[in-house]
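sorry to bug you again but im stuck and you know this stuff better than me. theres a chain ive been looking at and ive put its sequence and its fold in token form underneath. id like you to explain what the token line says about the fold, in plain words if possible. anything you notice is useful, everything is just below.
___
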Amino acid sequence: MKIVSDREFRNRPGKFRRELAGQDIVMTSRGKPYAVMLPIDQDTDVGTVLELAARIRAQMALSSVRQKAAEKGMETLPEEAIDSEIRAVREKKEHRMC
């Protein structure tokens, strides 16, 4: 894995394209990571790669929600309370749409 600032990438994109063939690249802006580039070969189905990336993002979101729930002591809520909260949010959303 190589860490590259967006400024470095902008100034020398060809260099990093060649490097990407052999490793993953983490893009940063002002020292903070914001993207990951992964090498794929020409036979790779890009749709499949994007589908897998969407699954990863969903898993990351779920992990974040679970962590926040644990921090608030909500990880032990009974299923009925969760269902009730979901219904309330859906009703509020439906009410706004009308």
